[in-house]
Amino acid sequence: MSLDELYREVILDHYRNPRHRGRLEHATAHAEGQNPLCGDEVRIDLVVDGGRVVEIGVTGQGCSISQASASMMAEAVAGKSVAEIEGLSSRFRAMMDLEEGDAGIDESRPGESLGDLEALQGVRRFPVRIKCAALPWTTLKEALEGDAG
Amino acid sequence: MSLDELYREVILDHYRNPRHRGRLEHATAHAEGQNPLCGDEVRIDLVVDGGRVVEIGVTGQGCSISQASASMMAEAVAGKSVAEIEGLSSRFRAMMDLEEGDAGIDESRPGESLGDLEALQGVRRFPVRIKCAALPWTTLKEALEGDAG
Amino acid sequence: MGDLSHLRDDFPILSTEMNGHPLVYLDSAATTQKPVQVLDAMDGYYRTTNANVHRGAYALAVEATDAYEGARAKVARFVNAATPAEIVFTRGTTTAINAIAYGWGLDHLGPGDRVLLTMLEHHANVVPWQIVARHTGAELVYLPLTDGYLVDTSALDGLLDERVKVVGFSGMSNVLGTIGPVAELAAAARSVGAISVVDAAQMVPHMPVDVQALGVDFVAFGAHKMLGPTGIGALWGPMDRLERLEPAEGGGEMILDVGLQESTWADIPHRFEAGTPPIAEAVGFGAAVDYLEAVGMAAVRAHEEQITAYALERLATVPDLTVYGPSDVSARGGAVSFTLADIHPHDLATILDQQGIAVRAGHHCTRPLHRLLDVPATARASFYVYSVPGEVDLLVAALEEARRIFGVA
Amino acid sequence: MGDLSHLRDDFPILSTEMNGHPLVYLDSAATTQKPVQVLDAMDGYYRTTNANVHRGAYALAVEATDAYEGARAKVARFVNAATPAEIVFTRGTTTAINAIAYGWGLDHLGPGDRVLLTMLEHHANVVPWQIVARHTGAELVYLPLTDGYLVDTSALDGLLDERVKVVGFSGMSNVLGTIGPVAELAAAARSVGAISVVDAAQMVPHMPVDVQALGVDFVAFGAHKMLGPTGIGALWGPMDRLERLEPAEGGGEMILDVGLQESTWADIPHRFEAGTPPIAEAVGFGAAVDYLEAVGMAAVRAHEEQITAYALERLATVPDLTVYGPSDVSARGGAVSFTLADIHPHDLATILDQQGIAVRAGHHCTRPLHRLLDVPATARASFYVYSVPGEVDLLVAALEEARRIFGVA
Ligand SMILES: Cc1ncc(COP(=O)(O)O)c(C=O)c1O
Ligand SMILES: Cc1ncc(COP(=O)(O)O)c(C=O)c1O
């Protein structure tokens, strides 16, 4: 049974104790994402300042994978520059086999780990759930693209 | 091949030389019938006087069976009393196997023949075409029921 | 009472595996599996009888028409319609309800008019009315539910008045299992001159239904939830009601004559069946009702009460599990929706899936109901004639496993 | 060019008899026969994969969804849609046209607006517009035909102006065989800002079609006239057009969210597919386009030109026989309508039927055209990939027999 591989403790921890939870009144950008097939919802609020995500707030509801993924993502991107976040996002997508072709893995920084996010690797074996894990990232991308600053 | 049995000469004759053809300006009753499945149309105009069909006019278009049946029927009923026509109609329906049960055949008048109408017996072997043969009779019935006189 | 487990042999898919485990199919409320009798009827139709129906002047077309119209007669007999003509074949329950909403609503609804629904309706009995309301200016009002998950007919007092032109309700809920208060709502509709529309997608498959006895105007149901194929359903109405319904779809086969600006309609039911109908699907639908009649709908219902009672009893032993729906099996069907602790239903479904158990997770096309229940989603197990108690046991064991994986204390 | 007669082995029904004679099936314009490849795909789906699509969190539902969406991709590729999302599955051609008439017409047509059609349209491309015209106050106008049975585009001069909001036309006539002047009418529609709608029920099955190259807004076609099952068809439109189309039917699966008064729609194409779709039928449709692609649509068209030319040539030898339709096979498809002396088409069909030959007799759902031709009915022979010249010979011999029976001098 690979279920324990899917539902690792760190995922359940992020699901039950989501980091950076909440709306940001003073957000400079935000986006909402929905997975129409299963109903997962994620909303990302950002304060972007000088090309850097200085604050992030996550709300939404859905399965443990989507919500844990959002929480882990928030932790990973908070304080990072937009360029750094792009790199992270590419590496995440590569890990989840979401990239077409071999794009994304930034060979120049092999040492940079994905941290807690790596716990989501197990999702790859559950193709229907990959969309759940990816939802926060596509929503983040939309928020960043919509950012005026 | 029973086709020659279906398309007897007398049927083709009535088809090509329909009797009592035309509208009656002074009709006391009329009805229109249509066979929605194949598009056959028959219109019957009647002058009924003293419980007797003194005049009948037939118009319409359709296959040889429906049009010949209408022509033969017109010939058979012209000048007959409504009661006589009901008897004819019953015997015709019985011949075509249209009656449910054994209703219709008037045993008290075994000698009365259906005349040309008997040529339609061959239609019985072509169940889809029975409706064509019956259409003039159901239309006549409607016309008689609608007659005010 | 009948052990129906011998029926399983008729369903080829039930001896397949899912994720390495024998398939435990508990999603019959979404669609049922099909017996070989239904599959063979359709396959045989295509191999020996296939032709377009009506207007065909050759033997094959006559046979195809007889097969199609014969299926109509079977479905009519199955629900005790007064004549086969009262059965209109549609693409499914959804299309049947749309046909009423458009065919009756566009001409008879106007600003200020109301469509009265219940809070447990499937989207199929909500969205068509919203669309027609947008075109006509009508509005929708909803009957609430009681704490016991029944439709709260006491609220009719405040909601039923002359503005109500349609009363639409589910015969059996696909989420709660709740059997609708059909007689009461039919009477309510009549009392204000409204038409009554029953969404019987779950009702006709799961209990004996005599449409004439319901006292309603229209009943919609579909084949694929009662052993039949996808692509076909039925709309029933008494003749005098169908006469007041305009055809929603236009096209071939439904006309008497077509002029350049206007047309006249064929007889009922054909005027409601524009275009080439789902012919092979009708044959399959007919075979499905033959199958159910052979089992007997009383036996189907009894079996379902039994297995539902067993499921409710066993699920009650799982800690932290909440079932949404009436606990009295005589008031409900076999769709059992639940949540387990803080485990999201999708996670539950994934865990069960890995053990070969098929349940549905989500809002089951009832968003308004889920908002009312205040849960974004539920998991749902649902049963049919081929379901056996052993499958309930496997479900319960897998739920225990889910508790372990999620570390629910 | 390709002899396709080996394909006949794939069609079980072609080795059956009708009235004691080997079946000569010349009614493919009404519906085609089905190869085992299509039947086995559907049967196999039900036996191993059947589940409701979308929202399913278990493996079987994922497989069913993949089968359904995979069929969409196949149909998209078959007509060269830009993406699978541009293919909306419908119940058939008729439903597809109704979906446009309602989904676009109810919101965009008004009093004084015009729908421009042609005199050879099938009722499926007339009656939906009449219904929507009744609700909106629009009117219908018609392009006449030339003496050579082509759509008379020179009449556009008098008929095309800013009042025209829709130009609807057949890609290939089911009676005359006439191929529609698609490019010309598409340009005409664009020139006045109207939408163009192609009834491609006969076109997509019978010739290579690249929907993107047609320059039109919507294309409707169905599976059962191209080796596929009953119960399914498709509506194609480019994304930006589909975005301007409102969903006609409401129900499950087509929503993003459902509120009590209003709802929001799911993405394209799902917003146009309310309720449980025809899933097994989509699988069969996919298998049908696979089959046709393997034959090659150029080969299908070439075969049809050949057999139509042969039929026209042989029919010309029958005295007193009138063919309605273009004589140049490059301008037409393989539906050949005719009358023979004063023998009514129904009588003809009965006589042919007795010899195992299936032809259709009637107005073929084109009353306005038949009024124009000034015949109440015609007989029609129509061909498909499995038709062979020997069948034409049998038809001609049977027509001679009809002349004898009716004593036509
Ligand atoms: C030209 C044309 N359009 C539309 C249709 C209607 O197709 P369907 O009956 O499959 O909806 C047909 C076939 O009957 C046709 O030949
Ligand atoms: C209660 C209820 N109504 C309507 C429907 C819609 O049926 P269909 O999807 O077959 O049109 C369903 C099933 O999904 C249902 O459970």
Structural notes for this entry:
- The complex is a heterotetramer, with two copies of chain A (149 residues) and two copies of chain C (409 residues).
- Chain A has a single domain (3-145), classed as Sufe protein. Chain: A (Alpha-Beta Complex).
- The model of chain A is unreliable at 101-111 (pLDDT under 50).
- In chain A, helix 2 (9-16) packs across helix 3 (64-77) and helix 3 packs across helix 5.
- Chain A has helices spanning 3-6, 9-16, 64-77, 82-95, 127-146; strands spanning 29-34, 41-49, 52-61.
- Chain A has a three-stranded antiparallel beta sheet, covered by helices on one side.
- By secondary structure, chain A is α+β, with helices and mostly antiparallel strands.
- Chain A contains five helices and three strands, in the order H-H-E-E-E-H-H-H.
- With 409 residues, chain C is an alpha/beta fold.
- Chain C has two domains: 5-30 and 297-405, Aspartate Aminotransferase, domain 1 (Alpha-Beta Complex); 40-293, Type I PLP-dependent aspartate aminotransferase-like (Major domain) (Aspartate Aminotransferase, domain 2).
- In chain C, 38% of the residues lie in helices and 17% in strands.
- Chain C has 14 helices and 17 strands.
- Chain C has a seven-stranded mixed beta sheet, with helices on both faces. A four-stranded antiparallel beta sheet of chain C has the order 13-14-17-16, covered by helices on one side. A two-stranded antiparallel ribbon of chain C has the order 1-2.
- In chain C, strand 11 and strand 12 (263-265) form a beta hairpin.
- In chain C, helix 3 runs parallel beside helix 4 (127-136) and helix 11 packs parallel to helix 14 (389-405).
- Chain C is globular, with a radius of gyration of 22 Å.
- In chain C, 64% of the residues are buried.
- The model of chain C has no long low-confidence stretch (mean pLDDT 97).
- Chains in contact: A-C, A-D, B-C, B-D, C-D.
- The interface between C and D is large, with 99 and 98 residues.
- The structure holds pyridoxal-5'-phosphate (PLP) (2 copies).
- One pyridoxal-5'-phosphate sits between chains C (29, 92-94, 122, 124, 170, 174, 199, 201-202, 222, 224, 365) and D (252, 275-276).
